[in-house]
Design a protein that fits this description.
Blueprint: E1 2-4, H1 7-22, E2 28-30, H2 32-38, E3 54-57, H3 66-79, E4 90-95, E5 101-106, E6 109-112, H4 124-129
Antiparallel strand pairs: 1-3, 2-3, 4-5, 5-6
Length: 137
Amino acid sequence: MMLAHTMHDVYIAKRHVHANRLNGVDNDWLTPTEARGFCPPLNISPTLRYPVLGAALQRRGGVARHDAVAWGYARAADTLGVDIIENCEVTGMRRDANGAVTAVETTRGMIRARKVGVVAAGHSSVVLSFAGMRLPF
């Protein structure tokens, strides 16, 4: 259940509910009273600093812990022979005459590689800039 505390939250949550429904995902918009019926300890007092204005509920939805997902991918990558080095900042990349990346410069030294994958989330554009590449906005 995702709570909406501002009118902006209400618009976004309702849009989310409708988008899910269009894609065959069961999702419902709840009034504050209905939200409390689903979660009795929920305080829906209108005098709260940020009162509950409604909620989006996906009854069959689950929770995927992002760290568990990341480690699942890491274990699978390791099985395929990928080397993962934690706490190792990329500071540059080396390219050959054809433009292919041949090495990654890091705070732990240079790492030569035949293939380099960049999975730096919000910093992908920063890391790829070391290779002279620019991601679209």
